[in-house]
Amino acid sequence: MNLWLILSLFTSILAVKDYLFKPCEQNGFCNRNKHYSKNVESSPYNINEINFNSEGNFISGIIHKSLPSRTVKLPFEISIIEGNFRFKMNENRQDINSIVNINRYDETPKWAFINTTNDQFIYKNKEIIYRDHKVAVQFNPVKFTFYYKGKPQLIINDKHFLNFEHQLLNDSDLLPFESTYNTNSDDFPDSKNDKLPLGRESIGLDFTLLEFNHLYGIPEHADSFSLKDTSNSEPYRLYNVDIFEYETNSKLPMYGSIPLLVTSKPEVSLGIFWVNSADTYIDINKGKDSSLVHFMSENGILEFIIIIEEKPQLVNYQYGKITGFSTLPNLFSLGYHQCRWNYNDEGDVLDIHSKFDQFEIPYDAIWLDIEYAENKKYFTWNKETFPNPEKMMSVLDRTGRNLIVIIDPHIKTGYQISDELLAKEITIKDSQNSTYFGHCWPGESVWIDTLNPNSQSYWNNNHLQFMKNNKNLHLWNDMNEPSVFNGPETSSPKDNLHFGNYEHRSIHNLYGLTYHESTYKSLINRNSNIRPFILTRSYFSGSQRTSAMWTGDNMSKWEYLKISIPMILTSNIVNFPFSGADVGGFFGNPSKELLTRWYQTGIFYPFFRAHAHIDSRRREPWVVGDPYTGYIRDAIRLRYKLLPVFYTSFYINSINGTPVIKPIYYENLDNGDIYDIDDEFFISDTGILVKPITDEAESKVNWIIPDDSIYYDFTNGVLSGVYKDREYGLGDIPMLLKGGSIIPMKLRYRRSSKLMKYDPYTIVIALDKDGKAYGELYVDDGESFNNDHAFIKFKFENKKFSYCIDGDYLFKLEKLIINGITVTNFKNNTIVDFDIDYHDEL
Amino acid sequence: MLLLFLLTTVLSDIIGVSPEDQHLYQPEIINGEKKWHCLNDSSIILNVNQINDDICDCPDGSDEPGTNACPVTPFKFYCKNEGFIPGYIDQFKLNDGVCDYEICCDGSDEYKFENCENKCQEINRQYQEYKEETQKFVKEALKKKDSIINQAKSKRTQLINLWNKLEKSLPMKKMEINNLKLEAESNQQHDLTVFDLLGDKIVNLIERIENHKKSTIKQQNSIQALEKILDRLSKEYNPNFNDLAVKDSIHKFQHYVSNKEEEVSEDIHETNQVLHDLVEKAKELTHSGDSTEPTFGNMFHHYFKTIIGTFLTKPKDSVEPKSSTDLSPKIGALEKELAEYEKRIDDIKNNLNMNFGPDDILRAFDSLRITKKLGGYHYIINILGSIVQDDILIGNFKEYKDGKLYYNKGARCWNGPQRSAEVEFQCGKGPELISVSEPEKCHYYFIIKSEAWCNEITDEEITENFKINYDLL
Questions:
Q1: Rg for chain A (alpha carbons), in Å?
Q2: Does residue B138 belong to any structural domain of this protein?
Q3: What is the rounded CA–CA span in Å between residue B101 and residue B123?
Q4: Which of A313, A663, A802, B417 could form a disulfide with A831 if both were Cys (CB 3.0 to 4.6 A apart)?
Q5: pLDDT tens digits for B305-343?
Q6: What CATH number corresponds to the domain at position B404?
Q7: Which residues pair with B84 in a beta bridge?
Q8: Does A759 participate in catalysis according to the annotation?
Q9: Which keywords does this Swiss-Prot/TrEMBL entry list (chain B) (predicted)?
């Protein structure tokens, strides 16, 4: 009885306060779209006018929405952007004499996209033809059917969920199946002050995916990799929020959002890119032969892009051509990051720093959370605890270590930095267009409006003055959802105003992107030849270009270790590979075993950082003691041995979008059993297969072998014989290497990644059934934007190892490990014959 | 026979190997070629050019004393450090771009890139300066330590003197008490009217107790109501709003709940017992003859009646206070004093037996109070008393053991154990608190610098502790 009481007490304390977040039913636009979709009889939207331009690369026209009393004219556009179908639908509104910009927000691409070009296409007989794609256009009601490989793959508005809430001119201006729930006021407790000056303005649309049953993407949710049917649950929601103590297996929104949904089946992969930055819900209904996806957004124009390709990796490529690929990270940022809220002072930082060397554990960056600044006033140092930060940074720099400090978008009122922000009028404004004052860590604060182009020079100057020319200083941008402690759903009121007098409602999900991009520009302004590192918590489509992300405030529990893998896989397949979860869990104190297993998993997070809450115990790798400290040391060292693999994978991602950690279905679309596997993954195309242990006291791994290749035991990064069932002790990291792979490693321990620069590579070769293997390596200086590099292709065929190099950056080979046998007597860039009977190995 | 193959000419020095160990790398001539075998495995024969060729051939790493090719090596890399003390550096620090001047002031750890200037001269200057300062400091510190030890000694002597003094005064006290007791006994028969004076006071007392109880119950009810409100607040508040006032209040409330005394459910028994004893005593002294035994139910009424009936009816003027009535408080006071003396003697004995570190040195700190603001908290450390963080008790001194001071029985943490602490003393200018950490939840670790912990220092220790001032390089 007592025990039960204690347990229930704990769950009530540690659970997310879900009453703080709007469910669909209580969120006006979601409620109305769901009502519409249930009650619509026939779609009132017809194409009335369609014009194909003389350049042959643009369609414009008018869609009529037929009301009982009148017809609403809605202009639309169709183009082919970087080879993909793009649709836009807008509305010409009448002025209502308000401060608010009356136009529907259409600038989401301005932030999310890079420079793109429109392609020519053919339009005839109500068919749009581009590349090897065809889209049949039905006029009445409007409907698009996408054909690829001779078969229909996708139908849009097949279910008549297209809903474009037009500006109301009078009360009878509605269709019978249109609801008026919360159109002019919001009765959700924390949102009662929302003035909704433009009334209802939501959009919704259905996508029928033919013969597709496995859907992915639309992060961020602490849920399975494969999206679930939401017929009997909440829809997935995209609304960037500071969700405190989030729960696993939940469709609640989180810190970031990428409105890209992808799906695959043999021969065809497809992406729906819903180009909208407002509050959004996605309902998924999985039928027998098809899946129905219903997107609903609170406002903005209706815009989407359809990507249809043969393979999922090509969807990544197409999406990357539109939103940009990740910039190749600064090499150090792929090393190990040691963080804690907080390292208290310079002595503390330097003590942690020297302990890494004392325990011979490599690390690359130490972090400072909000306590380093005086009273959380960013761009200042607490002089009592950090009297001489420059000197501290120079000590870190001596062994190639970096310092990463936090700078958030809330600026405390009452000091020079916020005074200037107010004077320049570059703050987020309230609904009356005066500066909005809210609460966050420092107390009363104002927020920089990074949508305002005038904010950049202010931001640049402050970074210059604060960071000076410390080359090993990088940044952490947190709380940029934005998190507002006293705001509705812990964020900005939706009727706040941004540059151009657009409501916050329209741009909410991309604010975090504008913030960290502004920081990126400031860092480039400071030093244009060092690749900046920025960690962001909030993100949107396009964030991958300039930042890394982490999955926010998780807990020291096994279930959070487990869910981190599907979350990071999801981020990887929507082109944001530089992602990780807090190793050890943010809240609470992990057991020794959990901490060990978390490190062993964390070394495969593309972004590898340990972090802990201020109330948790110290847990740097040596605190736990041996044998655990030894296991953790081995794990971190393995990450460093694999840095060439990660760096090369990031390089490949930066040119074609290939995920850095990759689901096993990606290259095995004919294997219908593996589409939902989310506890096992490949590292890029390297052939390294990983299945972390995420259960307590587990020593077995149930490997899913995705294809009929040979797989070798590669436990702890050591190549041995063909994989067999085995026990994995607490010091063992389950890994396999696919036959046919060649991977570059750097096996020698150094204190940091920078100090490994001159060490030679060891080439690990796992032969396939025909005795062949292939692999790649990318090398450059690891930190600048110089183009000096080398891209090396390795080949093992006919008992001969050879490689060819593109570029002239110096690199050195040390030895080969072929199916577990070490060979040292070969020379660079010559073909060498190895007398190895690899068949004996099998 | 092996000797025949030994080479007589000495090759140039093997890099990374100290002069004393160079002989281990003398090559042999096998079939006319210069060969060398791994130090711990003579079956692995290498060409001499395989030594330090950046490829690891020997399982013990002995072929690569001058590179980082082997994961283990039999000895570290030797830096000559001309003009300074030779150093031995881990191979993983070789040729990594870092001038590890702490060990190799001559920069020879980076021999491949030659990016490290020889700084032995400046480092030697710093070292000599540091050595001089350290030796000077230790000399001074040891003087101070001596005086601290003397303080401790004199404190011990003081205690022993006090003990003796107390011990000596005991017989006198005892005798005094006995004399008074005898005197009191002879006056016993005149004591009958002692309670005449107290009757109305007791009535008053009983009424006051009743009233007090009522108001206590009232107060308890309102405290319970408030606790209920706070409990609800602490469970259902919105942590996302991060209102510091709310968070702080909740934190303090949780602290309050964790440290709340067990409620004494019903003290009526005790109160009644006190009254019962009081009246029993009264009965003894009055010989009233009323022997009706009180039951629990009628106890109050019974005693009330007895007290009122017995005393209040008697005329007040018949009370004649005798001198003997003044004796019992005096006896009581003396007995209390005696008990206190005995307790103090016990305390002194225990104290003298306690471990106060080498030379009994902590005894000198028995009234030392160190205060400091660290990491946002204000600490007060009474070395042999309590440690307080802001207004929270971290612990009381328990013992000195294995070089450290232990404190326990601090305020209980919410959802956690009682707070406790360890204090480590280090040699240095002090006494000063230099760091606080919390290695385990609610268990604190303090480091205090003091000359009391200084000892004679060897040259090796000085070398080990020496830190280079890079700003001057």
A1: 27
A2: no
A3: 8
A4: A802
A5: 554 544 444 444 444 444 545 677 888 888 888 899 899
A6: 2.70.130.10
A7: none
A8: no
A9: Coiled coil, Disulfide bond, Endoplasmic reticulum, Signal
Cβ separation B240–A344 shorter than 8 A = no
For A22-48, the pLDDT digits (tens) are 999 999 999 999 999 999 989 999 999
Q: How far apart are CA A679 and CA A668, in angstroms?
A: 16
Chain B contacts to A (CB-CB under 8 A): 54-55, 57, 68-69, 71, 92-93, 95-98, 112-113, 235, 238-244, 375, 435, 437-441, 470-471
Single residue among B262, B296, B321 that ends a domain in this structure: B321
Q: Which CATH superfamily is domain A654-841 in?
A: Golgi alpha-mannosidase II (2.60.40.1180)
Grouping H, G, I as helix, E, B as strand and the rest as coil, residue A369 is: coil
* 3-state SS class at A393: helix
Domain span holding position B249? 188-321
Q: Decide if pLDDT at A79 tops 70.
A: yes
Question: Which of B302, B321, B340 marks a domain boundary?
Answer: B321
> Mean pLDDT lowest for which of A65-79, A511-525, B250-264?
B250-264
Minimum Cα–Cα distance from A345: chain B residue: B375
**What is the C-alpha to C-alpha distance for residues A340 and A338, in angstroms, rounded to an integer?**
7
For residue A559, give both structure tokens.
């279930």
Give catalytic status of residue A481 as yes or no: yes
CA atoms of A818 and A772, how far apart (whole Å): 11
Least confidently predicted of A695-709, B244-258, B271-285? B271-285
Domain-located, residue B244: yes
Q: What sign has the CA pseudo-torsion B71, B73, B75, B79? A: negative
Name the catalytic one among A82, A186, A481, A489: A481
Strands (E), A653-723: 661-663, 681-683, 688-690, 711-713
Nearest to B55 among A443, A617, A824 (CB): A824
Domain assignment present for B312: yes
Q: Taking a C-beta distance cutoff of 8 angstroms, is the pair A738, A763 a contact?
A: no
Chain A residues with CB-CB distance to B238 below 8 A: 17, 20
Superfamily per CATH, domain A331-647:
Glycosidases (3.20.20.80)
**Beta strands in A277-330, from DSSP E residues, in sequence order:** 280-286, 290-297, 302-309
Burial class (CB in 10 A: 0-12, 13-18, 19+), A22: buried
Q: For residue A12, which residues of chain B lie inside 8 Å, CB to CB?
A: 235
Residue A763 tokens, joined: 């080439």
Interchain contact, A748 vs B441, CB within 8 Å: no
A776 catalytic residue (yes or no): no
Identify the residue with better confidence: A333 or B223. A333
Q: How far is CA A255 from CA A236, A535, A777, in A?
A: 14, 13, 34
**Residue A600 backbone phi and psi in degrees, to 5:** -65, -25
- Which residues on A lie below 8 Å from B239 (Cβ)? 17, 244-245
Please tell me the distance from the alpha carbon of residue B103 to that of residue B401, in angstroms, as a whole number. 36
From the options 2.60.40.3500, 3.40.640.10, 3.40.47.10, 2.60.40.1760, give the CATH code of A18-323. Answer: 2.60.40.1760
**For residue B441, which residues of chain A lie inside 8 Å, CB to CB?**
589, 617
Task: Choose among B324, B330, B329: nearest CA to B189.
Answer: B324
Lowest mean pLDDT among A226-240, B92-106, B433-447: B433-447
Question: CA end-to-end span of chain A, whole Å?
Answer: 58
Same domain for B105 and B9: yes
Q: From CA B468, how far away is CA B473, in angstroms rounded?
A: 9
Strand A236-238 relative to strand A280-286: parallel, antiparallel, unpaired?
antiparallel
Domain map (residue ranges) of chain A: 18-323, 331-647, 654-841
Please name the residue of chain A whose CA is at the shortest distance from the CA of residue B471.
A391
Contacts of A127 (CB under 8 A, 6+ apart): A134, A135, A136, A137
Distance from CA of B216 to the nearest CA of A (A): 30
Count how many domains chain B has: 3
